[in-house]
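Hi Y.,

Following your request, here is the sequence exactly as I used it, all 237 residues.
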Amino acid sequence: MKASITLCALIALEQVAATPLGKRQDFSTIKYPAGTGENLHEYPPGTGENLHEYPPGTGENLHEYPDGTGENLPFYPGTGQPNPLFKFTSSYHILATPDQVVNGTTNPVFTGGLPGAQATYDFGINSDLDLICYSIKLTGFRGEYQSPARTATHVHEAARGRNGPPRLAFPNPTGTGNERFSVGCMRGPFTTGLIVNGSDTGIGFRLSQIEANPSGFFADLHSSLAVPGAVRGQFPG
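Below is the corresponding structure, written out as tokens. Let me know if you'd prefer a different format.
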């Protein structure tokens, strides 16, 4: 019986397909039966469809999914296959503090940065894709973001106690109160917006360079009250 119905349906579809467009039935003027709500210009009160945000308790306004939901799992449940968005060839946790900031290139001196400020940088790198994901938390920041680069939040190439050019420029952390955040992913080719000797300091840079020599790079952030750097933290070696 099912086979007969399927065959009839196929024959009917072939007949429709063979019918010239001008002779086909116009479905655009069909009205749905009263009570179905299909002709309403908006959903009735109480359905929640006209809300500008979801009601408290639905979890739709959370900045991240709660533990146990599985959204942050590195593997899809039951498949054993890695989630490509979370397949990192390396990862780094960096604590950036004011006491690590230096100024100058020939004879750099420690400046003390912006007292009271602190930042944590969590990076996940997939060097095969030249992809970096970042989660940056900044506290105790004062002043305005200030840098000749496109943003004031960077990864520079230089060893501890030395200065070097920015290779990556991240969106500045945002937020209200004492805490600010910047979260996302970027993929090469990279630019920083800072031009040195006629070339952007990010051009030609690849994330595999960090993996090859992580202690040769640092993360920092600049303030109008501490232009050389508010905080700085070296990649772990």
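Residues 222 and 229 are 4 Å apart (CA to CA).

Thanks again,
Q.
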